[in-house]
Amino acid sequence: MAAYAVPILYAVVIWWFSTGLIILLDHRPRSTHPWSMAAGTLVLAAALWAIGASASDTSEAGAYTAFTGALLVWGWQEMSYYMGFVSGPSAKACPPGARGFARFRAALATSLWHEAAILLGGLAILGLTWGGPNRFALWTYLILAGMNLSARLNMFLGVRNLNAEFLPEHLGYLAGFLRNRPMNPLFPVSVVLAGLGTVWLAQAALGEGIDAHERVGFTVVTALMALATLEHGFLMLPLPSAALWQWSLPGKGAEAVAAPVQGGVAYGTPPSAPVLATRSRDAQETAG
């Protein structure tokens, strides 16, 4: 069991810590953001180099390196968006009376460059790992990007728990694009597909005849997929998940209504697109 316990623990710890670190940096004074982004870009360059260097490494260390490198690339994507450096052509609230495709188009305009950056990041990792036996960086990045997109769509359509304290104030205009609803048609599909993906990856990790590199690689991506699926559950279930990252929000916990975070590196996730509860009520009524 130790052969699986260590990779699982590694995935959980780095998911939890990296998510909290990005939240902490996002909520520091705006004057610190250029410095944080500059440091993050140096980390991005190192992560891409590590991904390329590990593409031919079929050791356990190679699997850990690929996984970590992809998480760091995703961390840059999240920082650049939440700090406002790579967002979209529009930084406006949802237009009054917007419905259907018009509302979706306005929401997309707030993050179009971010979505393009995510695509470019995936293409970069694909190119760096092309033809190499170690593709776990690509697997990791695809899981993060796919589950992040799923969470954003679910929050756009409506979820029970909208994040209260994890959105920086300069992104408060996103409130009008999110809805508070007990359920939406996409959510069950998202959870079922994510659950099936977790089972499939777990079967690969437990398969006979795999070597140590594959066992570590499939185990860490299985753990990540399971965490992303759990984060989807946090969007609907009344669980105090925000307490997991309370340390990253000094002085804010008592001011906001606790709600689950999505996208933890999530990079989780996630992190995805949370909303200030104190500003969202009127905007949700306008959007809904």
From TrEMBL:
Matches recorded under InterPro entries: Photo_alph_chp2
Keyword list, A-Z: Membrane, Transmembrane, Transmembrane helix
Ranges annotated as spanning the membrane: 6-25, 37-55, 112-130, 136-157, 186-206, 218-239
The protein, known as: Putative photosynthetic complex assembly protein 2
